[in-house]
Specification:
single chain; alpha+beta; OB fold (Dihydrolipoamide Acetyltransferase, E2P); 6-stranded mixed beta sheet; 4 helices; 11 strands
Length: 178
């Protein structure tokens, strides 16, 4: 029972931190949540996130596509869990102790969470050295390079594009035809 209370406290504290960061982002503070999707560093818009879940249990769904990781219980509600790794660049994410669920804002995508390999932290535009040339791939808004001795190249993704693509790939072919 104590573990459940600790998890709830952790989730509440994290939600408060995200809300505070979101309020500050209206000024000049954090704009993105930096995560690893597979091995790719990705910037998710902070306004689209509702929280990060550290401990979770995924229930797989038979015959679901590779990007649909399964379903899980988040605060008493069943959430779809999407793994963007197979859609972005590579195979589905392997389960690991650093994997997290990023719960998305219910107003944008009800009861949906993203499976990420790791949460890196909040990112500000000022902490990124410069914006690289516009990418040619659809669904990618920009590429950013982080300043520092070991620069990381981040992809700023169009989350709506990838979620729509995931939803279309999940529907049977008969439903896609007019």
């Amino acid at each position: 029972m104590a573990k459940r209370t600790d998890i709830r406290r952790f989730q509440e504290a994290l939600a408060q931190k995200l809300a505070a960061a979101q309020q500050r982002s209206e000024g000049i503070a954090a704009r993105w949540l930096g995560v690893m999707i597979g091995s790719q560093p990705v910037l998710l818009p902070l306004a689209a996130t509702a929280g990060v879940i550290q401990e979770f249990t995924l229930t797989s769904v038979p015959f679901a596509p590779a990007h649909f990781a399964g379903v899980t219980n988040v605060r008493g509600e069943l959430h779809d869990v999407i793994d963007l790794a197979p859609l972005l660049t590579e195979a589905a994410s392997a389960p690991s102790s650093s994997a997290r669920l990023v719960v998305l804002q219910p107003a944008r995508t009800p009861r949906t969470a993203l499976l990420v390999a790791r949460v890196v932290g909040l990112r500000r535009e000022e902490s990124l050295a410069h914006r690289l040339a516009a990418p040619e791939a659809s669904g990618i808004i920009a590429r950013w390079r982080e300043a520092g001795p070991n620069p990381i190249e981040w992809l700023e993704i169009d989350l709506a594009f990838w979620l729509k693509r995931a939803a279309l790939l999940f529907q049977p072919a008969a439903e896609l035809q007019p």
